[in-house]
Each structure stands twice: as structure tokens, then as C-alpha cells.
Write a structure and sequence with these properties.
heterodimer, A: 255 residues, alpha/beta, Rossmann fold, 2 domains, six-stranded mixed sheet, four-stranded antiparallel sheet, 10 strands, globular, B: 394 residues, mainly alpha, abc type-2 transporter like fold, 16 helices, elongated
């Protein structure tokens, strides 16, 4: 479970994240939905401990991610914004490397690696160097190494961005599977259908603030729009200057 | 806690070494940089030796040999001297460097000689040409000797002791130029060895820092619970291993080379053997971890390989400064110099190659200083890995 309270981060004059509060529950998929530049990546970077919030609290399974990032990291599996691979290493070696860094060794590591390669349908490419991989194969490799330690909480920053249909499907299957196994899954996206198809809870983020949250049905009801896309546009205030203070929004008003 | 720290450092180290060994470019760089010192030193000694031989065997073209048959005959009898007929256009031949030195004996030589007047011999040479100087000097000395011998005979014929014509005797205590040059060449060894260490480490130092940033793999790496110190230390150990490998390889090649260089023929007092090689390695090896740590720290600031490489080439030039200074003009050795990285290595290696006795404790203290500085540098690098500008800045 991930609890976030009143998270703030500013870069100079820009309030990238401006008072975000939410809870991502166990055994549920939470989607962070927002247009580009809304603060999704910045929020996630703070959650996965590589960026320090100016203010606010993050608890990963009850461990304070700011005060004790090490403990938080052990409970997190992360597919970051930039998931570069090492071109001269094979897919299997990537998984092994990250497994070893997590402290997994020997038979456990070999079993876990085989399990992931099978689950992600990567058997054919497991022992090839990643230099020649397609975008989908790269994402799968990055995903596999991210969850090699079977973390309770999984953070994915735009996991399906730029993937073809088959790879997108594979990633969605993984997300559903993780949910079924009781993991907390939090992922960001700017694609409406994806979020509505996968998420139990949607957090709509715009200008660094959560402007609405709830199930896809809740959001439709809140805005009066049957079409979720219209609902999203209305909520994120992308149209005109309307800035609806939707119920469930916890952002503190900026001065 | 401590053991898992080390275990994780070794995991990172193993991965970096595996990654490195699969990069053909890095292997080639290692081999080429290891060859630098032996090839350069070998080349320098070889050209020095051939110049020596040149002075020993001199061919002297003589124009107008018929005007002074006795002189030419005397010349012929000198060891290493071959007399040949000179070209008609003597001055032109020297100016265009067809010949290095030409002796011209004028027609009136015999007449002047017979009259006991100074008989002229013209020595045509080009003093702007450095290489011919020893040869010209050799020929000039021969004529001076001939002149001296004849002068003595004339004095004796007149009943005068020739000694009175020598009021001052100059005793040449020559530190031959060949010996000086050979010593200078040996002075280059420390410099070359340090360049080798530098290039040997460069691949991993850039690939594991700026490379992680350029590929965008640094975020994923740092999300791991492995402490930053362990990650930085692992990369440092891997870089140090490759640098040590290239230094040891170079050392071996130099040692093999020394077996074939006829140092005694060059009039050198130096003995180059196992103790010198061991001493050189003992002097330079402790610097290697520091070189790697410094490279990594600097390269971490770079966003790409290219940027890192341009930073590191400046660093390489900077590290050569103490060596250059030591080779250009011999600074008098002061005790503190041993303990300053780079300068200390230069001083130690110069002592070792010059067979100057060094207390073993000096080596130990130098090693400890260098490694301690390296560890501080690695800690600073792991501090950089906490900075958001470094992790996300691209």
C-alpha cells in the first residue's frame, strides 16, 4: 500500500507537484491520469525515492520513503520514466543483475528469472543481447528486472507508451496478474482507454494537483459526461479557463 | 550489513567487467595503450643507438685528396673512418643535405705545409642540422689531432720540447650526450606508464557513469536498495582492475624490451632488470585506484560519453604536468614530493630507475595516501548519485 499526503515539489517558479494526496490500495490498480506536464512523472519520482519532496509524506507499506528510502526501495518495483538497458547484456543477465542487487542469489534467483521470462513470454529472446531488441522487448526486459524481487508495490511510469498492440496487451496482462496476486499497482498514463480498462481507481492530475479521483463510473457521474474522455477534459481544465474544484480533489489552492 | 555492502559492490563490479569485456573497442584500447610505452621507449632507444653507430663509423668525402696525400693517408688509418672522393659542388651538396660533412683541401696545401705556414683545410657543414653535429665534431677533432701531431714533430725538429707549446691542458670529463639522452628516455617511462593507467581505466570510468546517464539506465539502477556507496565502489573496483591489467601488461612488455636493449653499449650505468621493474610497478600501482576514482568523479558530471571524454582528456593533460616538469628540468628532489600523488610517482620511479636506494616505508606511506584519497573520491562520487540534477539531468 502506498499512502501519499500533501506532496509538494517545485522547480524554480514552477509548482510541478502542488499538494497531492492519495492512497493506492493493495490488490488494486491505481491509475495516474493526466496530460503531459501535469506532474505525473515528478510525483512518481518522489514515490520511488529518487527525488526529494519539498513537503509532504510518502509511506510505502508504512515505511517513510523520505526518512528511510532504503526500506521503501526494498518494497518497490519500478519501471521509471527512462528505463535504459545495457546493450551488451542479455535479457536474462539484466534480470539476474537486478536480482543480485536486491540480494537474491543462487537457485532462488534462477527460478525467479525463469518464471519472469516465461510469464513475459520472453523465452526466445532471453539469451540475446538487448542491443537489437524492439521497443516492446526492451519494455518487457525493463519490467522483468523491475519486479525480479517480487515487490509488494509496483510503480510504472507510462508503461505502454510507444508500444505496439501486442506488447501493450502483454503489459496489461502483467498489470492484471500483479493485481490478482495482491500487489499494489500504480501506473501513470495519458491514454484514456487504458486507464479505464485497467484501473480500480483513477486519479486525474492536472497542473500538479489531483483534480478528481474515483472509479471510472464515479468520474462519469461526477462530471455528468457519459464519455470518459469528455469527463477527463472537463476535470483537467484543459478547456477554457474553467477550473472545476471536483469532489475528491485534495489539492490545496495555490495562492 | 558490512558483508552485504561488499557483496553488492562485487555484483556491480562483476557486471561492469562483463559489460566491458564484451566491448571490442575497450579491449582494443587496452591493448593499444599498453603498447604505447614499450613502443615509444623502444623506438627512442633504437634511434639513439643508431645515432651512436653513425658517429663510430664515419664516411668522409674529401675533395682534392691529391693535394695532401699524407694527410689523407693518415685519415684512412683512423679507426672507423672511410675516405671517399667528394663531389665537385661541395657547398651545394651539404646545403641540400646530400652530404653531411665534406672536407675540401685547397691546391696550395702542400706549398703552405712545406713552408711551415698554416695550411688550410675547409670543413663544410651545416650547423643548423642537429643530427650531423656529432659527426662534424668527430671530423674536426681528427684534424685538430693531426695538426697537434705535426706541430709537435716540428718543435722537436727545432730542438724544442713540444710540451712548452701546451701551456694549458684541458681535460675533458665528458658526460657523453648519448648517456644523457638515454637517461632522459628512461625519464619518460613513468609518464608513459601513467598514461597507460589512465587510458586503461577510461572505458569503465566513463561507461559506468556518464554512460548510465546517456542510456537512461541510471534511474533504474538507483531505485535498487543497494547503497550508493556500494554501487560507486563496485564501478571503481572494476575500473581499477582494468587499469591495473593494462599497467601490468605494459610492465611486462617493458621488461621484455629491456632484455634486448644493449644499454651498456650506450655507455649507461643503468641496470634494468627485475628490481627496477618491480620498483616502477610498486611506485605507480597505488596511484591507479586514485586515477580511476578521479576519472569517475569527473565523468559523473557529464551527460554523455563524448562530454565525459572531453573532460577526461583535459584531466589526462593535467596529470602529465608533473611528469613533464620532471623530464624537462630535473627538479631537486624534496621529501614532500614523494607524498603528492603524480609528483610522488614520478619522483619514486626516477629514483628506482636511477638505482637510488629508497626506504620501503616510503612505498607503503605513498600507497596508503593514494588509496585513502581514492576512497574519499569514491565517497564523493556516491554523493553525486543522490543529486537530482545528476540522476535526471539530461
Amino acid at each position: 500500500m502506498i499512502q501519499v499526503e500533501n506532496l509538494h515539489k517545485r522547480f524554480g517558479e514552477v509548482r510541478a507537484v502542488d499538494g497531492v494526496t492519495f492512497i493506492a490500495a493493495d490488490g488494486a490498480v491505481t491509475g495516474l491520469l493526466g496530460p503531459n506536464g501535469a506532474g505525473k512523472t515528478t510525483a512518481l519520482r518522489m514515490l520511488y525515492t529518487l527525488m526529494r519532496p519539498d513537503q509532504g509524506r510518502i509511506l510505502v507499506d508504512g515505511h517513510d520513503a523520505v526518512a528511510d528510502p532504503q526500506a521503501a526501495r526494498q518494497r518497490l518495483g519500478v519501471l521509471p520514466d527512462q528505463s535504459g538497458l545495457y546493450p551488451r547484456l542479455t535479457a536474462r543477465e539484466h534480470i539476474r543483475y537486478f536480482g543480485e542487487l536486491q540480494g537474491i542469489t543462487g537457485v532462488d534467483l534462477a527460478n525467479r528469472t525463469d518464471h519472469l521470462l516465461k510469464m513475459l513470454d520472453m523465452a526466445a529472446i532471453a539469451d540475446r543481447r538487448v542491443a537489437g531488441f524492439s521497443h516492446g522487448e526492451r519494455t518487457k526486459t525493463a519490467l522483468a528486472r523491475a519486479i525480479v524481487h517480487n515487490p509488494k508495490n509496483v510503480l510504472l511510469d507510462e508503461p505502454t507508451n510507444g508500444l505496439d498492440v501486442m506488447s501493450t496487451r502483454a503489459v496489461r496482462d502483467i498489470i492484471r496478474r500483479l493485481k490478482a496476486e495482491g500487489h499494489t499497482v500504480l501506473f501513470s498514463s495519458h491514454v484514456m482507454q487504458e486507464v479505464s480498462a485497467l484501473c480500480d481507481t483513477i486519479l486525474v492530475i492536472a497542473r500538479g494537483r489531483i483534480v478528481a479521483s474515483g472509479s471510472p463510473d464515479d468520474l462519469r457521474a461526477q462530471t455528468g459526461h457519459q464519455n470518459l474522455e469528455d469527463a477527463f477534459v472537463a476535470l483537467s481544465g484543459l478547456e477554457a479557463d474553467r477550473s472545476p474544484e471536483a469532489p475528491g480533489a485534495n489539492g490545496e489552492a495555490a495562492p | 550489513m558490512k558483508s552485504s555492502y561488499l557483496a553488492q559492490a562485487l555484483v556491480v563490479c562483476r557486471k561492469e567487467l562483463m559489460d566491458w569485456s564484451r566491448d571490442r573497442r575497450s579491449i582494443i584500447t587496452l591493448l593499444v595503450s599498453s603498447l604505447l610505452a614499450p613502443v615509444m621507449i623502444g623506438f627512442m632507444f633504437n634511434s639513439l643507438a643508431s645515432r651512436q653507430r653513425q658517429v663510430e663509423d664515419v664516411t668522409v668525402p674529401v675533395v682534392g685528396a691529391a693535394h695532401a696525400p699524407a694527410l689523407v693517408e693518415w685519415l684512412r688509418r683512423q679507426p672507423g673512418i672511410t675516405v671517399v672522393d667528394g663531389p665537385g659542388d661541395a657547398e651545394e651538396a651539404v646545403r641540400t643535405r646530400r652530404e653531411e660533412v665534406i672536407v675540401v683541401i685547397p691546391e696550395d696545401f702542400a706549398k703552405q705545409f712545406a713552408a711551415s705556414k698554416p695550411a688550410q683545410v675547409r670543413l663544410i657543414s651545416d650547423s643548423s642540422s642537429q643530427n650531423t653535429r656529432p659527426k662534424v665534431q668527430r671530423v674536426r677533432t681528427l684534424f685538430q689531432r693531426y695538426s697537434g701531431e705535426i706541430g709537435s714533430l716540428r718543435l722537436i725538429a727545432r730542438g724544442v720540447n713540444p710540451v712548452v707549446a701546451t701551456p694549458v691542458q684541458v681535460e675533458d670529463v665528458e658526460v657523453s650526450s648519448a648517456q644523457q639522452r638515454a637517461a632522459m628516455i628512461l625519464g619518460f617511462i613513468p609518464l608513459f606508464v601513467m598514461i597507460t593507467a589512465f587510458t586503461g581505466a577510461m572505458q569503465i570510468a566513463t561507461d559506468s557513469t556518464a554512460g548510465e546517464r546517456e542510456r537512461g539506465s541510471i534511474e533504474a539502477l538507483l531505485v535498487n536498495p543497494a547503497p550508493r556507496e556500494a554501487i560507486a565502489a563496485g564501478k571503481w573496483i572494476a575500473g581499477t582492475a582494468t587499469a591495473l591489467l593494462s599497467v601490468i601488461f605494459t610492465g611486462g612488455l617493458l621488461f621484455a624490451l629491456f632484455q634486448y636493449i644493449p644499454l651498456q653499449d650506450l655507455g649507461l650505468r643503468f641496470q634494468l632488470g627485475t628490481p627496477q621493474l618491480a620498483g616502477t610497478l610498486a611506485a605507480v600501482l597505488p596511484l591507479v585506484p586514485l586515477i580511476v576514482a578521479l576519472q569517475m568523479y569527473v565523468a559523473t558530471f557529464a551527460k554523455s560519453f563524448k562530454e565525459a571524454q572531453s573532460y577526461l582528456s583535459f584531466l589526462m593533460m593535467a596529470q602529465m604536468v608533473p611528469g613533464m616538469m620532471a623530464t624537462m628540468n630535473t627538479m631537486s628532489t624534496k621529501a614532500w614530493m614523494y607524498y603528492v600523488p603524480w609528483l610522488g610517482q614520478q619522483t619514486l620511479m626516477t629514483d628506482v630507475l636511477g638505482n637510488k636506494p629508497i626506504h620501503p616505508a616510503v612505498f607503503v606511506v605513498v600507497a596508503i595516501t593514494n588509496v585513502a584519497l581514492a576512497i574519499i573520491m569514491v565517497r564523493m562520487t556516491s554523493g553525486l548519485l543522490l543529486r537530482e540534477k545528476i540522476i535526471f539531468g539530461r
